[in-house]
Amino acid sequence: MMLPLPPSLFRRRAFTLVEVVIALGIVSFSLVAILGAFAAGMDTMRRGIEQTTSALISSSVASEFRSDGIVGNGAGLITLYFSQDGVAISREETGGYTAIITPLEEGAAGESWRLDVFPGLQRERPLFTSRLTAPSESL
C-alpha cells in the first residue's frame, strides 16, 4: 500500500508575479543609473581631452611666440587654426581648435598678449587662456 505524500512535496516553488515585477524594477533602475554614469563619464573624458589638447596648443603657440615672434610689433589680432590632434592647419575646421592672440593694453605697446584657445567654431568661452609676454632683449 502506498502512503500519500505530504502536500508540501507536490507544490512547486516559483516566483510570484509581484516578485518578478519588483526584480525587473530593480534591474531597470540599476541599468538607468549605470547608463547615466557612463554618459557622464564620456562627457568628462571629452572635456579632459579638450583641456589637454588646448593646453598643448597654448604651449606650442607660446614657445613659437617666444622663439620666432609670431606677433610682430604693432600687430593686431592674430587667429591660428589647429586640427583635433592639435596640429597647426591653414583654415578653420568644425572639429578643430582656434587660437586667438590679442594684444593687451597694459604698459608699453607690444609687451604682452592674451592667448585664448576655443573649441571648433565656438567663440563664447575659451577652453584655455594664457598670457604671452615678449622675451626680454637684455641678458
Could you explain the architecture of this structure?
This protein has 139 residues and is α+β, with helices and mostly antiparallel strands. It has one domain. The chain is 40% helix and 20% strand. The protein is built from two helices and five strands, in the order ααβββββ. It has helices spanning 7-10, 17-68, and strands at residues 78-82, 88-89, 97-103, 112-119, 128-133. The chain has a five-stranded antiparallel β-sheet, covered by helices on one side. Strand 4 and strand 5 form a beta hairpin. It starts with 6 loop residues before the first helix and ends in a 6-residue tail after the last strand. The model has no long low-confidence stretch (mean pLDDT 80).
Supply the key terms.
139 residues; 5-stranded antiparallel sheet; alpha+beta; 20% strand; 5 strands; single chain
Order of helices and strands: HHEEEEE
| Derived structural class | alpha+beta
Tally of domains: 1
Stretches where pLDDT is under 50 for at least 5 consecutive residues are none
Name the shape in a single word: rod-shaped
Quantity of strands, as a count: 5
Rg, nearest Å: 31 Å
Number of helices: 2
Helix content: 40-55%
For the biggest sheet, the summary is: 5 strands, antiparallel
Strand order of the biggest β-sheet: 2-1-3-4-5
